[in-house]
Amino acid sequence: MNTFRTEYEQGAVFYEGPDDGFIKVDVKDVELSVQSFAREVANKLWNIEFYVSDLYEGRLHLTTKLHIHTKGQPFFLGNIYREGNKFGVWSRRISNNKKPNASESVNFKTALRNAAKHLQLWDVAELAGRPAYSYRLERGTRIATIRDEVSASLERIGVVNEKAPAFKYLLTEINGNRYVGEELRADVDKYMQQKAAHKELKDSGRFPLFVYVSKDTNNYDCMDVMHIDADFASSDTVRTTIAKRLHDWDALFQQLLPKLSVLNVMKEREYVSGAGMKYSDNMFLVVSDDDDGAT
Question: Which of 61, 58, 62, 68 is CA-nearest to residue 88?
């Protein structure tokens, strides 16, 4: 499976959208000094909407910062603002040591170019970053828990590992259907079950399919999907395949529906062996049937 490395932002502040305590506004209702800037940004960027914090409800005329959103995106592209005589743009795509993630200019045309350059759509690999890292941690915790249970079972049996001569002899006796004691037989059975569960967990789920459920610009239901390499997911990078967009006429779209239905009733960020994990209401990581990264 060919994967590509993508860096993504760690800060929770970048992952805010309209439903996170914001209200939609009309440009004419906000502070006068930012209105002309907002109108020209709306002309530059296609089909955007402006939002402000709901703390400004009832006093919109005081706000000089507008969050930018567009259809089909789960989070804001960034925001624009007016500070003194400067027109500012704030975005995850801006690198600025003096004022993090911000670009300001007293020149109106320069500020508009900054908005057009930096207020970019989220790509699917960016969206997969935090869910993939959460998936890796949850899956790793589950594997470690079962590994500890396996070790505890061996301890109850009274051996260090399954290669111990005493354990091999014990298995020979059990396989020969000879009596070894009910309690000891139960401990061995439990160990074998836990060992099988540990192997299944380790052997599956490394290359889950990240699924982002949304609507396209024509209001059709769609899924953006890509495989992620869970073992290489970190707090700021993710390795993925190239994303594909699916609609309900695609076979894989239909194949994923029952799996998403199962995950959708689970708690968020709870790893389910053999199924995957629900990260949010529209982001899932689905364990593939073959888990080899092929779709």
Answer: 68
